[in-house]
Amino acid sequence: MGSASRWWLHRSLKALDKDLRRLGSRLIIRSGEAGEILAEISSILYVKTIIYSRTFDAKCENFDTRLDIGGHVDFMRIDSALIVPPGIVTTKSGTPFRVFTPFYRAAVEAGFFHPRDPGGTSLRPWRAPDHWPESLEIDDLGLDDTRTRSGRDWAAGFDRFTPGEDGARQALDGFLENHLMGYADDRDRPDLDATSHLSPHLRFGEISPHRILFELAKAVQRNPALTAPAEKFRSELAWREFSYSLLDQAPDLHTSNIHREFDAFPWTDDDDGFRAWCRGETGYDLVDAGMRELWQSGYMHNRVRMICASFLTKHLLIDWRRGEQWFWDCLLDADPANNPASWQWVAGCGADAAPYFRIFNPLTQAEKFDPAGRYRRRWLGVNNRPAPIIDHGHARNRALEAYQSIRKDARHDDSD
Ligand SMILES: Cc1cc2nc3c(=O)[nH]c(=O)nc-3n(C[C@H](O)[C@H](O)[C@H](O)COP(=O)(O)OP(=O)(O)OC[C@H]3O[C@@H](n4cnc5c(N)ncnc54)[C@H](O)[C@@H]3O)c2cc1C
User: Which of 197, 210, 236 has most ligand 1 atoms within 8 Å of its beta carbon, as the pocket-test mutant?
Assistant: First the structure.
């Protein structure tokens, strides 16, 4: 796990333990062979049923098969982490979808996006056992280590979010109440507070996408004018589902190009460029503002993520995997499916990728999506700005040449 994710997990576990203790229960954390540990705990607590949700990270995929603990314990699996469990929605010939729109259409037609009442919490206060099974302490897991070498707390600015189920619920309620109406129009504007900020909550399972669909449908029922923005929001949630379907097809999504012709791409080892990009010192204000938002807040607006990723891979010709790793370490929502799938999409080597010739111009993007410069000023201040480390026109031509070297059918297009 990356550093920012560990910061989140630490607080998320604390919040979960607090919620459970309110019900007279508690969180038990153990490390070792899942089957053996569950067998031991089940016998201490007289467990009848183990209810669990699958994660879809490749590292956890064998969990199901390790659960056979014998005895009289029933297992009940609920797929609460995804709306479309991978491998179920396929093309007519039975193969997984490689393109988003038909994937989404097929999933909608199959009824997956039909909102279902996920029910309220069924946990009730209960009488604690005389002896609790042993547990590791959350503080001993080594997750909360965001002090830099100079002793500064790198996470001091992560305060936009409140890890835990309550925080997730508040983010959803606040979004539905205040921002859903403008979502379709404003979601691309980093200078406005227009999106849900649910991504880390979804990443850590603090809210289920089924709950989001259900509350979304209720909001539309109360106010039919929300129909169109709610549909836009639903389709964005579906990108997450699509990413997981790609991860299911390619467990090495973070290391291997989906389009294998990119294996021959002439990436450069531009260490100075990489350092400037990480530090927000490229001289392109929107890129630098985004990279500083990431470092300081653990988050970056989606439009700016696309522009920063495009700048790294196309202007600097640096391998998308280096950028993916930096995001993985810095993002609170660093996700094993969304992060690599999005990086591959921007770099041009992914499924359903943006056409390789679409090279964002960070200057025109800034005028379009941050018209009054509010976002840039917020993250850059008004200090003297460095000169651009590379000329846009030169970088663009260099990138097109590099892409042409691996694509026989290269075409030019001036759309930014
Ligand atoms: C280079 C790059 C890296 C990214 N890395 C991650 C990552 O590690 N984790 C992550 O959750 N998202 C990632 N995204 C997708 C997207 O930027 C974030 O999901 C979004 O910005 C989160 O903010 P939000 O919750 O306010 O989004 P909203 O607009 O409110 O969207 C609601 C939810 O839909 C999902 N979603 C929205 N857009 C996308 C998308 N393009 N792809 C997949 N899911 C989407 C997310 O779960 C999000 O929380 C990345 C995008 C790019 C271009």
Answer: 236
Structure tokens at 331: 């993002």
Burial bucket for residue 162 (CB in 10 Å: 0-12, 13-18, 19+): middle
pLDDT in tens, 144-167: 988 877 878 889 999 899 999 999
Gap between the Cα atoms of 389 and 184, Å rounded: 34
Residue 133: what are its φ and ψ, rounded to 5°?
-60, 150
Question: Which segment, 62-66, 131-135, 339-343, is predicted with the most confidence on average?
Answer: 339-343
Active site residue 295: no
- Chosen CATH of 82-115+159-249 out of 1.10.8.60, 3.40.640.10, 1.25.40.80, 3.30.413.10: 1.25.40.80
In one letter, which amino acid is 157? G
* Cα angle 73, 77, 82; round to 5: 165
Nearest atom, ligand 1, residue 200 CA:
11
The rounded Å distance from CA 254 to ligand 1 centre is: 16
Atom of ligand 1 nearest to the CA of 343: 1
Of 192, 326, 328, 317, which Cα lies nearest the Cα of 267?
Answer: 317
Domain ranges within the chain, ordered by starting residue: 30-78, 82-115+159-249, 260-406
Average pLDDT over residues 250-272: 95
Q: Residue 311 pLDDT more than 90?
A: yes
Query: Which among 8, 154, 239, 379 is annotated as catalytic?
Result: 239
Say yes or no: do domains 82-115+159-249 and 260-406 share a fold: no
Residue 69 pLDDT grade (very low, low, confident, very high; cuts 50, 70, 90): low
CATH of 260-406, one of 3.10.20.30, 3.40.50.2300, 3.40.50.300, 1.10.579.10: 1.10.579.10
Q: Is 267 a catalytic residue?
A: yes
Look at residue 327 and tell me whether its pLDDT is greater than 50.
yes
Average of per-residue pLDDT across 17-29: 92
Tell me which residue has its CA closest to atom 37 in ligand 1: 236
Does residue 212 contact residue 229 with C-beta atoms inside 8 Å? no
Reported confidence tier of residue 413, pLDDT bands at 50, 70, 90: very low
Residue where the block lists tokens 């009442």: 117
Any catalytic annotation for residue 320? yes
pLDDT of residue 67: 65
